[in-house]
Amino acid sequence: MDLKPRILTDAQCAGKYDSLLRDIACVRHYVATVGNFKDKSMNKYIPVVSRLLLAQIFLISGIFKVILASKNPDYYTQFGMYLGSHGIPYLVVPLTFIIEIGAGAALFLGYKTRIAAWILAVYSLFLALTLHLQEPIFLMLYTALAGGLLAMTTLAPTACSLDNLKKK
Question: What pLDDT is attached to residue 157?
Answer without folding.
Answer: 79
